[in-house]
Amino acid sequence: MKTQDAVFRQAYPAPPYWVARFDVAHPPGPGAFVLADFGGPLREPLFPATIDANGFTVMLPPRHPATRLLPGTTVNMLGPLGQGFRLGGATRLLLVAETACLPPLLPLLEAAPAVALVIEAPTRAQLPPPDRLPPTVELTLVTRDGSAGYLGPLESQDPAPANLQRVMPHLVELIAWAECACFACANDRYPALATIVRAARIQPPPDFAQALVQVPMPCGVGACEVCRTPTRAGEKHACIDGPVFDMARNFALTL
Ligand code: FES
User: Fold this and answer.
1) With contact defined as beta carbons under 8 Å apart, do 85 and 182 qualify?
2) Among 22, 88, 103, 194, fewest CB within 10 Å belongs to which?
3) pTM (2 d.p.)
C-alpha cells in the first residue's frame, strides 16, 4: 500500500470553497484521489483541483480541518488511488458539472486545445464567477430556476417558459462537437445523461463519455465495500474500478 507524506503549504478562501495547497512527490491525476489523514477516525478523499510537478491544490468546504493546519504541517496520504479521467489525446473536450461537483473537473480546464464547460447550479448565486475560469474556456451557464444562462436541469426536454431557453439542444450540440466528454454530477443523473449522449452520438467509442462517481471511500483499496456502485455490469468499487467510469457502458439504460 503506497503512502506518502505531503506538506501543507497554505489555505485561503475562494467562496464557496477554501483552497488548500499540498506539496507531495506523487500528486493524483485528474479524477484520481488520495486518502489524507487529518487525524479523524477515517481518511478523507482529496481530488485535485490543480496539479503541478510539486503537488496539488484541493477545494474544501469552509471549516474543513485542513483549513486550520499550520503551514509546514506533514499530512500522511494514501495513494494516488483510483482510475482518473482518460482523455486519449482529445483536442475538443467537453466538461459538464453540477456546481457542487465541479472541483474534480478543474484540472481539465486546460487539458485540450479547445475546452467547453457546462455548469449547472440551482440558481444564479451558486454559479462560480466566470473570471475565475481560464478565458480560453467556452462557458455555458445553466440554472434550474432560469435566473441566469440556459434553463436546466440538463436532462429536461420540457417546454421552457417564455423568454427562457432550455439547455438540452445546446448540450446535444456540444456533445456532437466533442471528442471526449467528462461529467461530474449526482450519480443518479448518469443514466439520463448517458441517454442524451447516445442521442447525440449514435455509437460513441469507449470512454467517449466519462462519469465521475462521488461516494464515500474510506479505505480506497477495495476492502471495506462502502463504495459499491451499481452499474450495468453489477456492483463495482468506486475506489478501484472508478471513480471515473465509462458512462455509456456502466450507466446507460440500454446499449
Ligand atoms: S473505499 Fe473501501 S472498498 Fe472502496
Assistant:
1) yes
2) 88
3) 0.94
